[in-house]
Design brief:
- The termini are far apart.
- The radius of gyration is 16 Å and the shape is globular.
- The chain is built from two helices and two strands.
- By secondary structure, the protein is an alpha+beta fold.
């Protein structure tokens, strides 16, 4: 993939769903704050913060795990998921 497209969809319905999801992260107009959403804290993941990044900085770890632990459950929308495996570009919510 060239990285030019941020998202792809298999159907028009899937594309419209992705647009709705993307717009849910943005304020409705300039000067507004982003909308808050209901969220459930995933307390069972919080202890993983101490172990997800290894003490030895030469050891690899999965940044997707870090994002999953830090951000609200099911709130991450990754952009360009097939471009540059070493970069995560996403929208996510922290505390709603």
């Amino acid at each position: 993939m060239s990285g030019v497209a941020h998202l792809s969809a298999r159907s028009e319905e899937e594309a419209l769903g992705a647009v709705r999801c993307l717009l849910s992260y943005l304020p409705s107009k300039a000067g507004d704050r982003p909308p808050l959403m209901n969220f459930t804290e995933h307390e069972e993941l919080q202890p993983l913060l101490d172990t997800v990044i290894p003490d030895d900085s030469s050891l690899p770890y999965d940044m997707h795990d870090v994002v999953r632990i830090l951000l609200d459950e099911d709130s991450v929308m990754e952009l360009q998921p097939y471009y540059a495996d070493n970069i995560i570009t996403c929208f996510g919510r922290l505390g709603g």
